[in-house]
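Bench log, entry 3. Co-assembly request; chain sequences pasted below exactly as received.
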Amino acid sequence: MIVIPELLILIAFGLFGGIVRVLLGFAKSYEYGFVPQRAWLTLIVAALSGALAAILIAEDPKVAVIAGLGGPDMVEALWRGLARRVAGGAYASATAGAVPIWITNRQMKGLAVAKRKGGITVKQYAETVGVSLRTAERDISDLTKGGYLQVKGKGRAAVHVPVKKGK
Amino acid sequence: MLPSILLAAFIGGAIRAAIGIRKYSLKKGQVSSIAIDGMIGAVCGAAFMSTVNMTGNAALLAAGLAGYVGADVVETLYKLRIKRGGSLV
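Structure output for the full assembly:
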């Protein structure tokens, strides 16, 4: 039977795993101009998942640390997947502003430029990330379908604008 | 026990790769990335399990978790290294 002090210790170790995860997130996203948002939420999920995993698997602080590291990633992936399938249109607002996890680094770079400039065309995207127009179209299409960008205008001159939070 | 732990950790790493693949659809080349992440996960899982004293289902779950996290962390560090212009070896 686990007691409160032990539980607090496991939560603390889970939190430690979450801090490492947040720091890795900052390091990964820094170059692309993103600031990882909702870091506090990551830390809460890390603390809870760390403690929960340690209780369920083994009351070992090491388990709490690795569960704290991996827990937020799993929860985020499941949540985004569910939001995409169940919430439909709510997906875009649910994910706007957060560092996306399943788009490529190339798309992340293009998205960062779109956010900085307020929008991006297919040609600008291709030049920015160094790909062909065809690939740029495909990347932007994925970002649009994923709810990260919305199209304004038609044809080659169409500007792809980042979806703002709350819309 | 070691083969079971390696398998559990491999599965953990492979799950990490599968989650990372956008839209959850397999395309050419992505099977190999799942296998690579699985192998990274297996190594990380085995390394983690050598530091703890667990048996049974708990050991398998812990190995899977360690494989998942190991693949995630190694992938992140690898991407950071690439961005800074470093070589892969």
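The CA atoms of residues 63 and 76 of chain B lie 20 Å apart. The first helix of chain B runs from residue 2 to 20.
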